[in-house]
Amino acid sequence: xxxxxxxxxxxxxxxxxxxxxxxxxxxxxxxxxxxxxxxxxxxxxxxxxxxxxxxxxxxxxxxxxx
Length: 66
Ligand SMILES: [Zn+2]
Known about the structure:
This protein is of the alpha+beta class. It is built from 1 helix and 4 strands.
């Protein structure tokens, strides 16, 4: 996994972080990994949130935590 950067490029070549937002249950751009729920067996669960949901719910991206 590559390090995530805070570069806010407005380029349209590489849609970074496009994925499913677990908070508003739609696909959106600029989603960030919020939580990883480890399970004993199986892949576990990951939750991604888009920018508006991170603001609305006060979510802190996993990579930005101490
Ligand atoms: Zn969202």
